């Protein structure tokens, strides 16, 4: 009789004894209030505890960090450390590009200013005006007025003022002072 289904001699795999009745018939019976439906005590499931009568739970507390949370945190930290260098280089590169773009703009403006100055210097009237202002050049026939030590000295254009009072020119006086310092000549007495 071992081949008949549901009529084995030993306990079943789920721990209940086979009664031979269909399960649908057993589940459709009404259960009286206060009873669980069977007269046998229910087996305890492993891993579950029933609370004690004092109201305090002695169930073990869940750990603050589970293994999965620690692993996830470690992976996030590893990812952040891996990406920190390239992100820093990216931001530094963008700052360098911004700086170079500003420098390029400034250089373009300087190029424009220098090109304008080159155009001005190509004009002969500008060159003549600058020579008169900066180098005190005069055209023949113009009158030159130079202020020396608060006195106005006038001269004609193209003429060199003559030396007065018999003073030697400044370069002769310089050479004479070098010769005196060298010991070649004696100092003139006045």
UniProtKB/TrEMBL annotation:
Keyword list, A-Z: Cell cycle, Cell division, Membrane, Transmembrane, Transmembrane helix
Any matching Pfam family: DivIC
Transmembrane segment boundaries: 69-87
Listed Basic residues bias regions: 1-10, 42-51
GO biological process: cell division
Keyword Transmembrane helix listed: yes
Region (Disordered): 1-62
Keyword Isomerase appears in the UniProt entry: no
Protein name as annotated: Cell division protein FtsB
Organism (species): Geodermatophilus ruber
UniProt lineage: Bacteria, Bacillati, Actinomycetota, Actinomycetes, Geodermatophilales
């Amino acid at each position: 009789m071992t081949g008949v289904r549901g009529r084995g001699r030993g306990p079943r795999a789920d721990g209940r004894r086979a009664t031979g009745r269909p399960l649908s018939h057993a589940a459709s019976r009404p259960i009286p209030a206060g009873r669980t439906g069977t007269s046998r005590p229910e087996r305890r499931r492993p891993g579950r505890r029933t609370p004690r009568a004092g109201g305090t739970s002695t169930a073990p507390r869940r750990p603050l960090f589970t293994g999965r949370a620690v692993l996830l945190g470690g992976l996030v930290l590893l990812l952040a450390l891996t990406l920190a260098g390239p992100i820093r280089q990216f931001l530094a590169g963008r700052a360098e590009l911004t700086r170079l773009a500003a420098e390029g703009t400034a250089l373009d403006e300087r190029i424009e200013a220098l090109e304008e100055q080159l155009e001005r210097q190509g004009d002969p009237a500008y060159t003549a005006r600058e020579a008169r202002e900066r180098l005190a050049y005069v055209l023949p026939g113009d009158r030159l007025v130079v202020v020396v030590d608060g006195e106005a000295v006038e001269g004609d254009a193209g003429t060199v003022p003559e030396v007065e009072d018999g003073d030697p020119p400044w370069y002769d006086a310089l050479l004479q002072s070098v010769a005196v310092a060298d010991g070649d000549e004696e100092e003139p007495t006045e």
